[in-house]
Amino acid sequence: MAAGVKNAGVARGEGREALLRAAAEELVERRGVLEVGSAAARAGVSVGLIYRHFGSKAGLLAAVAGDFYVRFDQEVLEVDPAPGAGWAERERRRTEMAVAFHYDDPLAPIVLARMARDPEVAAIEARHLRVQVARGTQNVIRGQRDGEIPEDIDAGIAAAVILGGVRQALVEVLSRREPPSRERVADQLWRLVVAAVRCKEIRQ
């Protein structure tokens, strides 16, 4: 009996992940439009499973957005992109990684622009942004302790300016028919970081 319950739990988890992948693919292919029937068929599950896991179509959209932000945090914000380097060198590299993440993920323009108008998605985004700003605040404080950022900088304001500015800049460039090169975008975003914290500019 215990083994059967365990296997059922695994199957439920796999069904949820399959639905998330299918919904993401549908959103990319349909440019921000999601049909639950089509997503369920792509995942090879019943439509009822969507409502069992996510409660509603809006809940599925919010879960897709949440998964996107979790991946961004894990791949960009929670890693040390330049072990042993100083604050500016490390954060210059993180800026490049943030741009690369959004340029490489076809879901990025959908989540940042089209899906952000959905209330449940907006709530997910706001929650992740609060966590990111808190983490960014500690990161700026670390730069102050290392002597690379002036002590009179308000770490919380600087983190909010940087993260909010980066997000809006990415919305802008990803909405263009022909986005500028990722190198150019990373360079301009790094200038935003430098201006926000008044650290020494590092060019690549």
Model description:
- This protein is mainly alpha-helical.
- The chain has two domains: 1-55, Arc Repressor Mutant, subunit A (Orthogonal Bundle), CATH 1.10.10; 63-204, Tetracycline Repressor, domain 2 (Orthogonal Bundle).
- 75% of the residues lie in helices and 0% in strands.
- Helix 1 (2-29) crosses helix 4, helix 3 (47-54) crosses helix 4 and helix 8 (155-174) runs antiparallel to helix 9 (182-197).
- The model is unreliable at 1-11 (pLDDT under 50).
Briefly characterize the structure.
By secondary structure, the protein is mainly α. It folds into two domains: 1-55, Orthogonal Bundle (Arc Repressor Mutant, subunit A), CATH 1.10.10; 63-204, Tetracycline Repressor, domain 2.
Secondary-structure blueprint:
Layout: H1 2-29, H2 36-43, H3 47-54, H4 57-77, H5 87-104, H6 108-114, H7 119-145, H8 155-174, H9 182-197
What is the CATH homology-level superfamily of the largest domain? Tetracycline Repressor, domain 2
Mean pLDDT: 91
Cα(first) to Cα(last) distance is 60 Å
Pairing-aware structural class of the strands and helices? mainly alpha
How many beta-strand elements?
0
Report the uncertain regions: 1-11
The oligomeric status of these chains comes to single chain
Predict the CATH topology of the largest domain.
Answer: Tetracycline Repressor, domain 2
Estimate nothing, just give the exact number of structural domains. 2
Order of helices and strands: HHHHHHHHH
Shape: elongated
Largest sheet at a glance? none
